[in-house]
């Protein structure tokens, strides 16, 4: 583990921008920051970076909070909001101006665009050309009247910024590759890269774990932090999550709010387990508890390569957690989802008995609901699908005999299974020839739990009535 022995307490942070929902990538960043803090008996801070006033919304803030709450990623401090710290940022900008580490730039956006266009045409690096940057012996232009300036950070023009990344190892970037970053807009609003530096310093953040799309920001932030006299945190940049096709994760792959995964029937512990494995490993362990994750999590096993999101793997993990979940929790969720779907479970078999039968087949709570609903709805049988099944040699006669045999059979799974086997033997049929039309008549679909278990739950009267109706079609 790469931790600085001088550090008293590990402090990590998750700092989302409230311009949208909490998606998988953000949730994984939050998880890794949380797990690292918990592993090191440190503190996890939530900070909302809401300086993008035009795009930040209260709804997006709430979506972030809802996502964190569903995943049960509890934070020790926060949420802090950057817009509530504006006075502090402005004071720090004034400090840099006084020290000569920042300066006023009066270039208009049009002038900056023209500057970039000329650089593009001549094949130069696109950057601010330093028109208003003060240098020894340099005479600056006269500030134009009526133009509000931006504030630019005076980035060092020589030297190298180097840090030992928790994930990627040593990284070095020449200062010559960076221009003078705007740290305050014309209206005086501080910019993202400046606010982040002040917050990380004053909140005593020791470890910054974030996506590797921030790598280019890191040397700029390190330089600003040095100019302010702050202590540099340890950075770790995790690769992005790719879709199953190897492309950047998008909505078609599942880049949606993590709360939507709750709606789609995933358990939070399953999502935590799955997200943890998207870029981190502990040997060959695929399934583990939160407690094990905290015990095992450090930076040594964070992957340097991008992880691929696999919806089927997520379902596999979720199915495991569903089978391990307390029955009371599953029953409560199942009842709620049935109610929302307009399914009345009061008339029919005990919901707990239905749960025992359908749980073995379900990989999501939504699938669990759909499977359970079969026992409380009158099926809509597709006659065009059923007819050719009944026309198969011996099938109609076998079903009629089977329905008659139900009058005298003991009503339990074992006896019903025995009657099914005896019927197909008597008529020289294979199991699917009898089971497929039977499933269709009883439930309206051909893929169900074991047919003997289905019949046992539906009850004798319902089973015989539906078979009789199916044979009349």
Please characterize this protein's 3D structure.
With 473 residues, the chain is mostly helical. The chain has four domains: 1-79 and 193-324, Rossmann fold (3-Layer(aba) Sandwich); 87-184, Glutamyl-tRNA Synthetase, Domain 3 (Glutamyl-tRNA Synthetase, domain 3); 326-376; 383-472, Arc Repressor Mutant, subunit A (Orthogonal Bundle), CATH 1.10.10.350. It has 19 helices and twelve strands. It has helices at 24-39, 58-71, 86-99, 109-121, 192-202, 217-228, 258-263, 268-276, 290-296, 311-324, 327-340, 351-358, 365-373, 383-390, 395-405, 413-426, 431-443, 451-458, 460-472, and strands at residues 11-14, 43-48, 77-81, 102-105, 150-153, 160-165, 169-174, 182-184, 207-211, 234-238, 241-242, 307-308. It has a three-stranded parallel beta sheet with strand order 1-2-3, covered by helices on one side. Helix 5 (192-202) packs across helix 6 (217-228) and helix 8 (268-276) packs across helix 10. The protein is elongated and about 105 Å long. The mean pLDDT is 93.
- At CATH level 2, the architecture of the largest domain is 3-Layer(aba) Sandwich
Average predicted local confidence, pLDDT: 93
Structural class: mainly alpha
Largest sheet features: 3 strands, parallel
Spans of at least 5 consecutive residues with low confidence: none
Relative strand content: 5-15%
> Going by CATH, what is the homologous superfamily of the largest domain?
HUPs
* Amino- and carboxy-terminal Cα gap: 70 Å
Overall body shape: elongated
In CATH's first tier, which class of the largest domain applies?
Answer: Alpha Beta
The domain tally reads 4
What Rg is obtained from the alpha carbons, in whole angstroms?
32 Å
Family: Belongs to the class-I aminoacyl-tRNA synthetase family. Glutamate--tRNA ligase type 1 subfamily.
Organism: Limnobacter thiooxidans
Protein name: Glutamate--tRNA ligase
Region (Disordered): 119-143
